[in-house]
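Support reply, case 0932

Customer input (verbatim):
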Amino acid sequence: MKALLLAPLLATALLTRCRAPDGCAPVSTRCAGNVAEICNGDGNWQVLADCDAVSEHSNAAFTCAYVNEEGVAGHTCLPTTVDAGTFDAATVDAGAEEGGVL
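Our regenerated output:
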């Protein structure tokens, strides 16, 4: 009887894990709307940062953008007042105030 009850649970767990990969390259990033996503080791996109949530928690507007700074490149949430093409980590301190997000 226990086997009959556990079989659907086991099947659900296995099918959830067996989803077809998105086909992305692990550790690559992208913006999907205003959400920064990273490709996991299974080749599937997962949320890295929801820029709307970052905006809400920091009381400042953030947007998803591509950054290439000092050899580190990828998509992340940046304050809308920052031009991603000229982003300089030394001039932006997103965590200076309580509730700030780094």
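We compared this against your earlier run and they match. Two observations from our side: The chain has one domain: 24-102. Confidence is low (pLDDT under 50) at residues 88-102. Please reopen the case if you see a mismatch on your end.
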